[in-house]
Structures are given as C-alpha cells and as structure tokens.
Amino acid sequence: MPTSASARRHFESLSDAAERTGLSVRTLRRRIAAGHLPAYRSGPRILRVDPADVDRLMVRVPTV
C-alpha cells in the first residue's frame, strides 16, 4: 500500500534537533532516557527523533 508524502514521517539526527532548538545533544539524550522524548533506532548506532516530538518539548512560558 503506497503512502502519501503527507503521511510519511520525517526524522532528524540529535545534532540537527539540537542545532534547530538551541538545546544540547546531551539534553536531548537525557530527555530520551527519562522517557520524555521518543527516539527511533536504525541499527546499533543511528538514533533519530521526530521533529514534532522535539518541538513538543518546548513549552511556552506564560507572561503576566
């Protein structure tokens, strides 16, 4: 069954996610270990995250 381009998931490396959000790779790894950020493994060393999941870590701080 073919998947449409809009249904295809996109992943990024931890270094790309860190650069995009201003977080460190170490922080992202801690969030993965704590269960706050889902990660996907492809092989023994390749770890990827969904950009939408990373974006959900970023919570707006309410202003007064």
From TrEMBL:
Q: Which residues form a coiled coil?
A: none
Report a single Gene Ontology molecular function. DNA binding
User: Could you tell me which residue ranges the Helix-turn-helix domain spans?
Assistant: 14-58
Q: Which domain of life is it from?
A: Bacteria
Pfam families documented for this protein: HTH_17 (PF12728)
Extract the InterPro entries matched here.
DNA-bd_dom_put_sf (IPR009061), HTH_17 (IPR041657), SinI_DNA-bd (IPR010093)
Please give the name of this protein.
Answer: Helix-turn-helix domain-containing protein
